[in-house]
Amino acid sequence: MESLKLIATIALAALVHFIGVRLWPDFARAVDVFLVLVALHGLRGNSLSGLLVGLLVGLLQDTLTSGPFGLFGFADTIIGYVTARLAQRLVIQRPTGVLALVSFAAVLQQAITVGLAFLLLPAPETPSPVWAVIRAGACGVLGMAIYIVAGRWRNSSETRRRGRMSRLRLG
Amino acid sequence: MDERRTGWVLIIVLVGQLVYLAIQGARAGETRLEGVGLRVLGPMAHGVASIPEELSGAREGVKLRGTLLEENRQLRREAADLRLQLLRLTDVEGELLRLGNAVRYPTPPAGRIRAVDIVYADHTSWLRTLILYTGEVEARRNQPVLSPDGLVGRVVHVAGPYAKVQLITDRAAGVGGMILRTRRQGVVRGGLGTGLELDYVPLQADVRPGDRVLTAGIDGVYPRGIPIGTVASVEPGGQLFHRINVAPAVDFGTLDQVYLLEYQAVPQTLKETSPSGKP
User: Fold this and answer.
1) Cα(A47)–Cα(B78) distance, rounded to whole angstroms?
2) Digit-coded pLDDT (tens) for B31-41
3) How close A152 gets to chain B, by Cα (Å)?
4) What ipTM does this complex have?
């Protein structure tokens, strides 16, 4: 059930990415939906699951780029692991904490991919610093928005479940 | 699993990926994993790409009659002009063939073109890509990709009905180019941003802004004469060569369909053979 949910989430992220790029050509430059997914998954605190999901999502993302295959796979593996380890050590309960964590993950991912590109490619182009900042901010905001919506949805479903249980007891 | 073991798993996965990246760089070829990814994401991108077409079809349906009549008139005029141009070019082609036959010049075969849809395009980020849906007839690796305005790139990966294209604006791409006015040849590479650079043109060569740049047909991938772009600026780059910036002929942001050129590229084995005959 858990893996099915994960596959559905990855498919949804890919769909959002395709629709975004179709509607706004700069979407892929401004927001990285796949990175947000990896960082939010890492927030659960399971580092093994974080690194494996990072690897899978990163390799899928590599399919959509012209760089060496494995560039994002490598970066997202580290992102998945690092966010999970951070989530184990820090208590992240506020949405602003999520914003900071996902933004940090976006900066780290760009640093890793650029570093690897310089190692592997003959004449690599670096992403523009302005877009790097926009990307980090946009990813953070998206991550925070998803965290808030998911939290509310979890709370309301929990309230509904409790209501059903109390009715059952009364009945 | 405890954190220490997970740390080991991370190290193994990262080292594995680094080795994979290094091997891939040395081979510079296709990867099986990439093909799997393309087969998984391709249909999804194709589905998303087909939605706006249906919407635009509905929008066309409610277009005003007057606009359509004007459009129709304009297209008729264009078709008449093109028919005249075709007649003139057919005449020129016949003359060229006759002259070629007279001196036994082996004219390169003119390739046929096939229209294909773009299902995913990311031409703005630093790792630019184009994914095509080619239908039942698969694309070939290194097949040139064109638009009515000029050269778009070449196919670098094929996975069933989907093909990934390396754009000419990619930093890793290289095209044999020539300046139409002087026939001076050089190598066109992706520049910073979405522009192009024409390299290896000596300082003594005459290059001016506004000069048209075409494919030279010397790289074994692209045939001669496809428009690449126009020289935007010329600066003295170093002691030997000009620094030439070229504006691409194609506006990559407006592409929704491209053409695959059925062109027989120079076989790789022939390209790798040394003058002495030893590969």
Assistant:
1) 63
2) 778 888 888 88
3) 29
4) 0.84
